[in-house]
Write a structure and sequence with these properties.
single chain, Dihydrodipicolinate Reductase, domain 2, seven-stranded mixed β-sheet, six-stranded mixed β-sheet, 11 helices, binds NADP nicotinamide-adenine-dinucleotide phosphate
């Protein structure tokens, strides 16, 4: 139980499944979170593609027709006195510049940034970092590095001084699920269909199967761990295609499991490979089932550190944003 030392208003951009879950969770859990973490979080405004709404204390988000036209973000941040700008807009190339510009506006006004949006992190990392440092603010990206899997926290802070020199990751649950179905004899088409039926795969799973999504998350983890600029990272990815079926079955016949493993190594700077590798019993990546994710941080002296679990869902991403929002606003001293 903490002493509640203050309030932290949040301006949220993006009201899709992740943004809605974020608002709903903070609304429902606000008192409990305040008691536990010492800060009362409140969503003060929500912005979407063309409209926005301002929320008075404790007020639910009004129906969309009652929202007003979008005003400038700077004005919105000043008007609300927000301490956090939360981003849950699409991670699409089309929105990259806007997502970067808005994060920079927030940081430039001494507002922390918490994001589940990935695109601008890949292209504007150095600029974002520079402005955040100049304004003594922080950027937290847990929602962009595997939803509720806290791999980003480990990469950024949890392994400091432990000598982590490699990252092996299966941070994309869809591709692991698909490879396991292929190993059972399903066709790629059927495996993807099964993933969609289970709500695991998006309508378009191409970035899951191409290795792009795994590479993106691993670029971000490597940036947090070793200070790489994600924009400079070369990606070498082997996609999961029709040819993967026989390879997955061949591995299964010998008690192994084929995994799409994203690898980054400190001694091979600015390269991320996504390989189709056979994994053996005892390997944490072999143990994954269905849509589970895991990251193995190789620490030769300290011993490897594995993080797995954490839901890959809009709620999982929203909870990661809640965690980051608490982290940047809650009072910190003593054990906190
Ligand atoms: N879904 C997941 O499980 C998951 C997990 C981890 C990370 N993420 C990341 O989280 C982010 C949000 O994902 P999502 O699934 O909630 O929804 P999404 O479909 O990526 O985003 C939809 C929301 O973004 C808004 N939007 C679009 N363009 C905008 C703009 N220019 N300015 C402000 N808002 C804009 C839309 O506005 P309108 O309502 O007006 O259309 C809508 O509210 C994505 O970047 C995604 O990669 C998602």
């Amino acid at each position: 139980m903490s002493e509640i030392s203050g309030r932290a208003d949040v301006v949220l951009s993006g009201y899709g499944p992740v943004g809605r879950s974020f608002v709903e969770h903070l609304g429902r859990e606000r008192d409990a979170l305040a008691r536990r973490h010492g800060v009362r979080l409140r969503v003060a405004a929500v912005r979407a593609s063309a409209t926005q709404c301002l929320l008075r204390d404790g007020e639910p988000v009004p129906p969309r027709p009652a929202w007003g036209p979008l005003t400038s973000l700077a004005e919105m941040l000043d008007r609300t006195g927000a301490r956090v700008f939360a981003q849950a807009v699409p991670s699409s190339p089309e929105l990259r510049e806007q997502a970067a510009a808005e994060a920079l506006i927030a940081l430039g006004r001494d507002v922390h940034v918490v994001t589940a949006t990935k695109s601008h992190l890949l292209s504007h990392w150095r600029q974002l970092d520079g402005v955040a440092r100049a304004h003594d603010r922080t950027i937290r990206i847990s929602g962009a590095t595997g939803a509720a899997l806290p791999a980003g926290d480990l990469a950024r802070a949890g392994l400091r001084g432990l000598g982590c020199d490699s990252i092996r990751a299966c941070p994309n649950g869809t591709v692991t699920f698909v490879l396991d179905r292929l190993a059972e004899g399903a066709s790629l088409r059927d495996a993807v269909r099964a993933a969609r039926r289970r709500g695991i795969a998006e309508a378009d799973p191409s970035s899951d199967l191409s290795g792009d999504d795994s590479a993106t998350k691993t670029r971000l983890l490597a940036a947090l761990a070793w200070g790489w600029d994600p924009a400079e990272v070369r990606v070498d990815a082997v996609p999961v295609d029709d040819g993967a079926g026989p390879v997955a079955r061949h591995a299964a016949d010998r008690g192994r499991r084929l995994r799409a493993v994203a690898v980054a190594r400190a001694d091979e700077p600015l390269v991320v490979r996504v390989e189709l590798s056979e994994t053996e019993p005892g390997d944490p990546l072999h143990a994954l089932a269905g849509p589970e994710k895991a990251v193995v941080f190789g620490c030769p002296d300290a011993g490897d550190v594995v993080v797995s679990g954490g839901r890959s869902s809009p709620l999982g991403a929203a909870l990661a944003m809640v965690k980051d929002t608490i982290e940047v606003t809650a009072p910190r001293a003593g054990f906190a």
